[in-house]
Every structure is written in C-alpha cells, then in structure tokens.
Specification:
With 271 residues, this protein is an alpha/beta fold. It is built from ten helices and eight strands. It has a domain at 9-155 and 174-203 and 264-270: Vaccinia Virus protein VP39 (Rossmann fold). Mean pLDDT is 93; it is low at 1-7.
Length: 271
Amino acid sequence: MSSAGTGNKEQQERIREQFTKTAEVFGTFAVATRGGEAEWLIQAVRAGKSDRALDVACGPGSMTLPFARQVGWICGFDLTPAILERAKRSAADAGLTNLNTAIGDAAQLPFADGTLDIAVTSYSLHHMPDAARVIAEMARVVRKGGRVGVVDIRVEEGAAVEVLNTRIERLRDASHTRTLRRSEFGAIFAANRLRVIAAEIREHARQFDHWLHVAGLHPGDAKYDETRKLMESTLGNDGAGFHPRIEPATPGAPPELMITNTVLLLAGEKE
C-alpha cells in the first residue's frame, strides 16, 4: 500500500490522515520488505538507463529508489507530504540525483500524453475509489511501447469473500476502498491497450498484530479488537480470503494469529 490521490476530496483526507500518522512505521516496513517486488517490476517493465519513469503513489519510495538506480530519471508522485518527505530523505541519503518528487492526485497526473517510458504503482490501488481511472492515467502518460507496472493486494473471486475482506480491511485502515480481483486487473489493462507481458501471484505471511501495527492499531484499541474478532471468525472457513491460522511466528515462540496477503504483480506494454 501507498498513499496517492483519488479525485475524491474526502478520500484524499482519509489517505493523508492515515499515512501522516503511520509515515515512519509504515515507511520502515515498506522499504525493508518490498525490495524483491521492486526488482521483479524493474525486470518486468524492462527498465533501462534511457528511460523516464513515474512512480504513482510512491509513498516512502520502496519502488522509486530501486528504480532510480536503473533508469535515467524518475518522479516519485504522492498525495501525502509527510510520507513523501521520507522518500526525499532516503533519496538524499542514497545520493540519488535523478529522482524528483511531486505532490498531487493520481487520478489527474500532471504529465502530457505519451511523454514517459514507464509508470508504476505499488500497494496503492486499493485506496482508490476509481482504480481504473488511475491505471488509465498511467497508460495515458506513457508512450506507445511504454510499460505500466502494478503491484497490489488481490482478493479472490466471489462476492461473499470480497464483502468480508473489505469490511476487515476498512476496519484496519479507513483509507481502504476495495481490493480488485485478478479478472478486474486484466480487464482494466485490456481497456487501456496494455498488453500483459508479465504476471505473478505472491503470498506474504504476516503476523496479524504486526499487520495492524503498521496501520497504527494495537491490542486494546477498539478497532484492533473488532478487526481481530472478525478475522478469528474466519478461522477454519477462510471467509475473507486471508488464510488465517494459529501458529508460532518463529520456532519456539508462543502461537500467534497469522494471515496471508495475496499480491498480484502485473506488467503491461502499451500497444
């Protein structure tokens, strides 16, 4: 997940509030854990030294910084100043001089048609009221033959699973809108003349407590308790698609509630 604009003022405020509150804890987590996905995306969109790139909803720079090492120029674009400042500090510390940042709305990207080679976004679309519009904007700003890459959580096909999944996600993070299904990602890419050139599903095991911690919730918080109760109600039936189970997080540790985040990595080329 990352924090980007939406075209909806109330939702923009929810995003700013959430990612201002969690800028450091979420930023530390994202940068530390998403390097492998960044490398996959770099390879999938064939990033090269002559490319001009855009990271939409860049958040703390978990994709922007690795891309900056591989492309000629990249813009980290986000809605939330606090988390964008963290990305800027990281870029300065790394000595990256080909990385610029900008604040704005992902639903209205400030780039002319076909002026970029690559546009990517990671863990942002489930915060967008209109994810299709954001992907359409990314497709608009890349040239013919340009590439678009997406990394985001994915919900299983099925209305009942999606309803409970959304309820849990919104309790955890009020800026969540809805998680797309794999079929929806494919349809949006096709509608924007993005030919899929790479796709992969990954599963990430997460400690439930840490999953809530990076969202700013802790045991004893009312929303923590309600979210945990709902998640525990799906033990044995997986009614929300999180594959919950009770197991030691590490050998010898006390049993913990564990979940799985299912993630789609997708890259397309503009026809």
